[in-house]
Structure of Flagellar operon protein TIGR03826:
Amino acid sequence: MPIANCKRCGRLFNRVRRDICPACVAEEDKAFETVRQYLREHRDATMAEVSEETGVGVDLIIAMIQDGRLMLRDNPNLHYPCERCGQPTRAGRYCPRCTKELSASLSAAARDLRKKAQEMERGQGYYSR
């Protein structure tokens, strides 16, 4: 098994699945249960309110949402900033607009690469007389 340092506390541990040690996993699970219970009772809470009332950091709450552990469908006021433009988003790392723009950019880049590859193939060859 590979040995790694925990991303949260720095302790050495046998890495199996995650980048954090078993003690930190237990802490995260406890924090997750606390946040989930708070959101069940306070459906209109904002991110700041949840963090303040539960004692769980905003970054950890966002990580829970991005990992798919915490669903926001019943919590209309819970959102966090897009990593690209800062607009509020409720899923993933980017807002829908940035997701669409990045997807379009990647598609255009892929088209350009395919076109260049085809041109390179066409230009190679040997001529005989």
Q: What stands out?
A: DSSP finds four helices and four strands in the chain. The first strand starts at residue 3 and ends at 5.
